[in-house]
Write a structure and sequence with these properties.
With about 210 residues, this protein is of the alpha/beta class. About 30% of the residues lie in helices and about 25% in strands.
Length: about 210
């Protein structure tokens, strides 16, 4: 990558895009909503059970201009886009969001919160990870806290994070996919006795939606 590209990356005018597609939101409070998806490369968290490990190394993906990203989103004829990763906040998302907002496109963010918030968002889904906890500004701006439950200790982690978000933030527990058969009954029991939480399932995997 040359100096000019590095500068454009720093400015957020180009981004390492892993994939772009049109589908239904598969999990969380927005499940079932049609949206464009833009997966951005690069991640500083590296969860062992991540289902998009191919996105971790941004150098594998040639950067795309934010104008070309907008053009692809518009080709789907939808008015909502989910920006995900990797960890999308590894990059400056202000220019992309400004461009999307000028074209009246709703913006949804999926983040671990490990990096400072950039961009203008209609909805922020914060999914905190133990090995790289969220920064304070993410707790303050989260509309939805979605905690992945891999084992019983994650319930403690979930409550620690729930105490840091605003009162209007939705609280969701979601089983880690490879352990769903084990953890789903435990999550259901937990929610029945801790009713401030609700269940999130990866609907797209159950329904085999891309």
């Amino acid at each position: 990558m040359n100096k000019e590209q590095e500068n454009l990356l720093d400015l957020g005018l180009i981004l390492p895009v892993v994939e772009e597609f049109y589908s239904l939101q598969g999990e969380g409070l927005q499940a079932g909503k049609a949206a464009a998806f833009v997966r951005i490369g690069g991640c500083d968290v590296g969860c062992a059970w991540c289902d998009s490990k191919e996105s971790w190394n941004p150098s594998v993906f040639p950067p795309k201009t934010i104008e070309s990203i907008l053009k692809n989103i518009q080709s789907y004829h939808c008015k909502a886009v989910v920006i995900t990763g990797g960890e999308p906040l590894s990059w400056n998302l202000n220019p992309l969001c400004e461009l999307l907002k000028r074209h009246e496109i709703e913006t949804y963010l999926e983040t671990s919160g490990s990096q400072s918030l950039t961009g203008q968002w209609d909805w922020v889904c914060l999914s905190p990870k133990k090995n790289s906890p969220p920064l304070p500004d993410l707790f303050a701006n989260a509309h939805e806290l979605k905690v992945i439950i891999h084992d019983e200790t994650d319930f403690i982690w979930a409550e620690e994070n729930a105490r840091r978000v605003k009162k209007t933030c939705a609280l969701l527990l979601q089983p880690e996919w490879s352990r769903k058969d084990i953890m789903l009954p435990a999550i259901i029991d937990y929610i029945l006795s801790h009713t401030h939480w609700r269940l999130s399932l990866q609907m797209h995997k159950w329904a085999k939606i891309p």
